[in-house]
């Protein structure tokens, strides 16, 4: 039920995003989701792709600092309060969200990508709720 997320460390300077994106394009990797978080000195580009292993190999071959992380994708309704409902379920189960970002699901509904401090515990506890966890097969269905 996890999605494999790649986190690529990039310098916070002009043109720094081009190099890893160009590397992935040259490797024939299509990006399904991309998110950038930054600090004054560096950024972390978070990527989800159907070709995670291929992307990881291409980035490492080109000397990028990259790691993989398991994240969960949860489909939400496109109505006011839908995200609050999901977050309330997480709070009720004592889950700690490290970060989240949005993606578009293949059903046309929003999908929130969540990183937890304990992904296995989050998956177990969220399975007890009405949260709609999206599998990688569902996420990448086209």
CATH class of the largest domain: Alpha Beta
Beta-strand level of the residues, as a percent range? 35-45%
Order of helices and strands: EHEEHEHEEHEH
* Class derived from helix and strand content: alpha+beta
Named at the architecture level, the CATH assignment of the largest domain is: 2-Layer Sandwich
Describe the structure in your own words:
This protein is α+β, with helices and mostly antiparallel strands and 142 residues long. The protein folds into two domains: 67 residues, VC0802-like (2-Layer Sandwich), CATH 3.30.2130; 70 residues, ACT domain (Alpha-Beta Plaits, 2-Layer Sandwich), CATH 3.30.70. It contains five helices and seven strands. Strands 1, 2, 3, 4, 5, 6 and 7 form a seven-stranded antiparallel beta sheet that branches. A hairpin with a 5-residue loop joins β5 and β6. 23% of the residues are buried.
List the helices and strands and how they pair.
Blueprint: E1 3-11, H1 18-26, E2 33-38, E3 42-48, H2 52-61, E4 66-75, H3 82-92, E5 97-104, E6 110-116, H4 119-126, E7 132-134, H5 136-140
Antiparallel strand pairs: 1-3, 1-4, 2-3, 4-6, 4-7, 5-6
Key phrases:
142 residues, VC0802-like, Alpha-Beta Plaits, 7-stranded antiparallel β-sheet
Quick summary:
The chain is an alpha+beta fold and 142 residues long. The chain has helices spanning 18-26, 52-61, 82-92, 119-126, 136-140; strands spanning 3-11, 33-38, 42-48, 66-75, 97-104, 110-116, 132-134. It has 5 helices and 7 strands.
């Amino acid at each position: 039920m996890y999605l494999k997320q790649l986190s690529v460390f990039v310098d916070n300077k002009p043109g720094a995003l081009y190099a890893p994106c160009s590397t992935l394009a040259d490797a024939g990797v299509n990006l399904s989701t991309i998110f950038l978080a930054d600090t004054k000195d560096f950024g972390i580009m978070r990527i989800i792709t159907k070709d995670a292993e291929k992307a990881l190999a291409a980035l490492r071959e080109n000397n990028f600092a990259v790691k993989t992380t398991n994240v969960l994708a949860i489909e939400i309704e496109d109505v006011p309060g839908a995200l609050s409902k999901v977050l309330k379920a997480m709070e009720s189960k004592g889950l700690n969200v490290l970060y989240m970002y949005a993606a578009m699901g293949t059903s046309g509904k929003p999908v929130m990508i969540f990183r937890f401090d304990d992904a296995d515990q989050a998956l177990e506890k969220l399975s007890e709720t009405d949260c709609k966890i999206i599998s990688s097969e569902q996420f990448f269905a086209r």
